[in-house]
Write the C-alpha cells for this entry.
Amino acid sequence: MKALLAVAALVALAACASSNPIAVHRASPSPVASPSPVASPSPVASPSDSKSPLPTIPTEEALISMRMTSLSVMWAATNTRVLRSADAGRHWTDVSPSPPIQWDAFFALDDDAAWVVAHTPLGIRGGSVGVMRTTDGGQSWRGAAAPRPGVGAGPITFADRIHGWMFVGAGAAAGSEAIAIDRTTDGGATWTVAATSGDPSTGQTTSGIQFSCDKGPLAFGSTTVGLMTQTCATFEQSIYRTADGGLHWKLIALPALNGTFAGYYFAPIFLTASEAIVGGTGQIVVTHDGGLTWSVYKLPGPGSVDFESPTSGWQLNDSLSATSDGGRSWHVIASALPFKGGDMTLQYLGSGIGIAWGNRQATALRTDDGGRTWRSVAPGGLHV
C-alpha cells in the first residue's frame, strides 16, 4: 500500500508539469523506456502556516538536510517535510509541498529558493524522479519530472536560481557506479540529461565519466565550472571537473598526504568561482584555479569541514577547530562539545556562527559564539 501511495503521489507531482514536453533522455547503462511527455509546471496549493512554533515531527523521521541561508533564515528537510525558520532556529514553520511523499534530497540556495527531490521505485528498470521547487520561501511549490527513470535520486545543487544539476543513480556494482547528471537552465521547470557514465561492458564514454569507482556529490562554482568527487579502492585519488556546464568531464589527480589514503565523500565547497575545498578522511584538498590544480593539508580529525571564505574555516571532530590560513594550520577553539562531533555535519557562516546536525540522531544545534555555547535548533519532535 505504501508503494502504491508513493507512486500515486509522484504521478501527482509530475502532473504539475508543463504543456511543453520535457527533453527526453536520462542515463542508464541499459536502455529504458522513455516516459510520456510531461506538462509544464503549475503552482500547487500553498501550505498553510503552522500555528505551533515547533511543528510536530515524528521521531522516527530522518533529518536529511539542514542549511542556514542567512543569519536568521534556516531550512531543514526530513523524509517527508520541509521546514523553514526565520528566527535562527527558535521557531519553525512547516512549508512542505503537497502531496507528502518520501524526499531523498534537498537544497536551499537562499532565503526564498529551495528544491526537493523524490524517487519512487518502479521495479527493476528504476523509478520515476520528481523535483519540487519554491522561490517564495515555501509558500507555493511547482513540480517537474526528470527526463528518464533512475534507480535513485541523489544530491541536487544550484549555482544560481536558474542553473542547477541533479545526480541520478543508474545502477551499481562492487566499487563501480553508473550515473546520470541532469541539468536545468530554467530554475528546475524542465530537466535534460547533461552527461552519463560510460558503458561498463566496453568502457566507452562520451562524457568522460567512467563506470568504475563510486561517485560522490557534485557542486558548481559558476554556470560552467563544476566538480564531482569519486572514491576508488586505490591510494591514487582524483576528482571530476567540467568546464562546459556538466556536458563533459575530465579526471584531475589529487595529491596524497604522506602517501595516506583519503576518501573524499563530502561535497565540494566553492568559495568563489575559482576557489574550492573538498574535505576527506582527515585531509582537505584546496584549489585556487577552479579545480585544475590542488594542494592537500592535514585536518585535526576525520569529521566535517566547512569554510566561509578562502582563508577562514571550521572543522568538527571531538572538538571544534578553526583555520585562518586556508587549511594549512588549525587550532582548537572549543573542546567541550555537547555532542559527538564526528557524527555531525557542519556549516560555518562566519563571525563565530555555525550549525551542526546529524541525520542519525536527528539532532541539530547552533552556536553564535565560536562554539563556546550551543542551543538546539531541531524542529519539535526530533531528538534534541
User: Anything to note?
Assistant: The two ends are 32 Å apart (CA to CA). The helical segments are 2-14. The first helix runs from residue 2 to 14.
